[in-house]
């Protein structure tokens, strides 16, 4: 659709000056300032009581050795690590194992169900 003109525009009224500005009153001083009262000392301070020693300290019992320590078994190597199976193959093996366990252990329902649940 074509854009239509708005029609004749009325002239804007001229901006008039505000007129004479009144002078600002001068800032007067506050007058004489009263002297500040001197800070008085707190008076005589009571002497602090001396810190008394705690008295004789009981001797500390000697730390006893734990006794003979059994030798630690040597850490055995894990052996060669094979390649990591891919996720799809691992899921297939676990699911097939769970299905075969479920079908073969039909008598032991609670054992079968919990084992299958943990296997999957």
From TrEMBL:
Domain of life: Bacteria
Protein's recorded name: Uncharacterized protein
Organism lineage: Bacteria, Bacillati, Bacillota, Bacilli, Bacillales
């Amino acid at each position: 659709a074509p854009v239509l003109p708005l029609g004749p525009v009325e002239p804007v009224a001229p901006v008039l000056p505000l007129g004479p500005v009144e002078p600002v009153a001068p800032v007067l001083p506050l007058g004489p300032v009263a002297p500040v009262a001197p800070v008085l000392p707190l008076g005589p301070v009571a002497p602090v009581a001396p810190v008394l020693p705690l008295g004789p300290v009981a001797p500390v019992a000697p730390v006893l050795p734990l006794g003979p320590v059994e030798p630690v078994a040597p850490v055995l190597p894990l052996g060669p690590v094979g390649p990591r199976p891919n996720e799809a193959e691992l899921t297939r093996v676990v699911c097939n194992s769970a299905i075969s366990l479920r079908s073969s252990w039909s008598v032991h329902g609670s054992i079968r169900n919990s084992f299958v649940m943990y296997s999957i």
